[in-house]
Amino acid sequence: LTSAGEEISVMEPLAAETLHDAAVLLLAGPAGESRAACELARSLPLPPAIIDVTGALEDDPSAVLRAPMLESAPPPAPSGAVLTAAHAAATGLGRLLDLIHSIHPYRHAVATLLEPVSVHGSRGVDELHKQTLSLFNFQAPPKEVFDAQASFNLLTRFGERAEGQPGGSQARIERQLARLLPPRRVPLPSIRVLHAPVFHGYGASVWIEFEQRPAAAHLEKELESQGIDVRSAGMEPASNTGVAGQSGITVSDLAHDPRHGSGLWLWMMLDNLRTAAETAVLVAAAASRARESA
Fold first, then answer.
1. Buried (b) or exposed (e) across 123-138, using 16+ Cβ within 10 A?
2. What Å distances lie between residue 202 and 98, 169, 217, 292, CA to CA?
3. What pairs with residue 227 in β-bridges?
4. pLDDT band for position 182 (50/70/90)?
5. Where are the alpha helices (DSSP H) in 181-271?
6. Given this model, what pLDDT does residue 79 score?
């Protein structure tokens, strides 16, 4: 039973009867529950399209990586395949680099990604909140999720008993970028993922070495013409609070590297929850259309 205001709603357990006429099944829970729901869906005579929102089933043999914002056409997927929504940071960074390279070819890119605690689910958000309150009250912070002080702290890794590590996100993003970008011959970036003590929103400090470096102001206009939210001088810079609930990616502070004649810096932000949800919705819509036409 769950309460919503003054009303009580009943959550029925997932069963074959619940899914028999479903066109799409979105998996957004823990890995164990997602696997059980996936097997239940596959047992149906006409299984729904199975979409993994969190990446928990990315290692499934049938998994097909999907990133509609980077695709010219949906890749083929057999019936019962798991459609894995690409990681939000891989989607956003891949989209930005793909777009820039198509306008001004570059040799190499380096990105330092600042990761929010919401990638660890509600438990990660709750622990950051509790740690912050504890520290303000001069108390020892709880460390069940991170096994480290995540509040007011930048970290390359958490404690040994942590439920997840920035390195795990880094490996997943690198793996997905390698699958999403090569068809367009975009040079793969070097990335490093760090923990940031914020609830939501990925930030990325990106350095790009161009074959022929464009003027920063010129690149700003070109990105803006392609639908990128560009914050030029005189506007508020891209921030995790500024992109909350916002679609797409936001960039700001494009600047030439004074020590490298071909280098340019930029700052990118995206709402990881919004990006993940929109990716899942786009995949679901395409899967539903394919199911109806089959």
1. ebbebbebbeeeeeee
2. 18, 12, 24, 36
3. none
4. confident
5. 216-225
6. 77
Q: CB-based burial of residue 39 (10 Å sphere; 0-12 exposed, 13-18 middle, 19+ buried)? A: exposed
Percent of the chain with pLDDT over 90: 78
Task: Please state, in angstroms and rounded to a whole number, the distance separating the CA atoms of residues 261 and 115.
Answer: 30
Kindly write down the DSSP assignment for every residue of 121-142, as one continuous string. HHHHHHHHHHHHHHHHTT-PPP
Task: Write the pLDDT tens digit of every residue in 128-139.
Answer: 999 999 999 999
CA distance 248 to 262: 27
Residue 81, classed as helix, strand or coil, is: coil
Alpha-carbon gap, residue 273 to 200, rounded angstroms: 8
Q: What angle do CA 214, 216, 220 make, to 5 degrees?
A: 105
Beta bridge partners of 36: none
pLDDT for 195 equals 98
Residue 16: per-residue pLDDT:
86
Beta bridge partners of 210: 106
51 or 77: which leads in pLDDT: 51
Asked if residue 269 lies in contact with residue 249, where contact means CB atoms within 8 angstroms, the answer is: yes
Strands 7-9, 24-27: pairing kind: unpaired
The residue among 89, 219, 269, 103 whose CA lies nearest residue 166 is: 89
**How high is the pLDDT of residue 183?**
64
pTM: 0.91
Element housing 74 (H / E): none
Evaluate whether 34 touches 257 at the Cβ level (below 8 Å).
Answer: no
Bridge-partner residues for 112, per DSSP?
192, 205
